[in-house]
Amino acid sequence: MTPSNRAALAALVAEATVDCYNDSECVTGFYTMLDEHLVLPFQTFVSGTEVTVSGIDLTAEECIAVICVRGQWRQRIPILDLPLPTPLPAGAQWVEAYRHWLR
């Protein structure tokens, strides 16, 4: 990762967590940014199967998850486990910022 990429991610992290006092509030801050900026739906592959990412959710365990759909099959998976497609959907930088913050 280049210094400019790190700086861009740090700026996004700062924006998402600006008024947060603990990790729980930070997760909620990232959820809010993802909900506002990640353009849905988009296609990706999960375990070799093409799915449509149709929604985003904040679980009771304070994990950010996406809702993946294929036909009548629906499954929530942690956004940390979501393989992002190429080209990236608009707003995907917020997924990367969340992953960066968790490291």
TrEMBL record:
It comes from the Bacteria. The lineage of its organism: Bacteria, Bacillati, Actinomycetota, Actinomycetes, Mycobacteriales. This is Calcium-binding protein. Keywords: Plasmid. Pfam families: Calci_bind_CcbP. It comes from Rhodococcus opacus (Nocardia opaca).
